[in-house]
Amino acid sequence: MLRLTNIYKLFNPGTVDEKTALAGINLQLNPGDFVTVIGSNGAGKSTLMNIISGAMRPDMGDVLIDNQNVTQMPEFKRSIFIGRVFQDPMAGTAPRMTIEENLAMAYKRGQGRGLRLGVTRRRREMFREQLARLGIGLENRLRAKVGLLSGGERQALSLLMATFTNPRILLLDEHTAALDPARADLITRLTETIVREQRLTTLMVTHNMEQAIRLGNRLIMMDKGRIILDIDPDKKKSLTVERLLGEFEQISGHKLSDDRIVLG
Ligand SMILES: Nc1ncnc2c1ncn2[C@@H]1O[C@H](COP(=O)(O)OP(=O)(O)OP(=O)(O)O)[C@@H](O)[C@H]1O
Question: Which sequence ranges form a coiled-coil region, renumbered to this chain (predicted)?
Answer without folding.
Answer: none
